[in-house]
Amino acid sequence: MPRTHIVGLLRAAAIFVAATLMPSGTEARPLALEDYYRLVTVQAPAMSPDGRRVAFIRTAIVEVENRRQSELWIVAADGSVPARRISDPSLNASGPRWSPDGQVLAFTGRRRGAAASDDEGGSIWFLRADRLDEPATHIRGVEGVPIFSPDNRWIAFTKRVAKPKPPQYATDAERVINERFKGRVYEWLGYRFDQRGYLPDPRVPNATPAEELFIVPRDGGDARQLTRLT
Fold it and tell me: How do beta strands 147-148 and 224-225 pair?
């Protein structure tokens, strides 16, 4: 489908959003505070390989909880079928992308309430294009934003891998306490949303580990690491 058609779809969506803020028959007025809670935005459009459907992220504001809710929606590219939500409402969705054969739609979904620094709060989900009403599932071994190989045989992704750091104890008592401790220890502060900090510090390689490249079979399996940057 021509790029101009995609731009037209996004412009139409923007007009729709504007219309929800200003019902027909009313005079123009300045934006008020309550209008903020009626804003709906669309972003990250992903056209299916056959050009028939567009997946996108629809973000609205939940006034009673004072938070944003991002959901994965899909619409017919020619407008013949209304847009509808296809992601679980308990997830905040982002980054939709299709497999080259158009049979799989992948996206990132973070559980509501999960902190940005919680690596376990977000995950990669997959939908069958012919079964969009069914719950999204995982593909075993995929632990990062997926990139499908052109032949649909492999899924590549990157993941931060820290070097193992041997424990250091000042006393035997400290060693015993740490061996019994089952919690999680944070030794640095994630300054940015992506948890990387401002600048990589070569003196502290474990604080900002490199992202390594992995591949997984299309149907899932053990991830194979292709790079060794650390």
Answer: unpaired
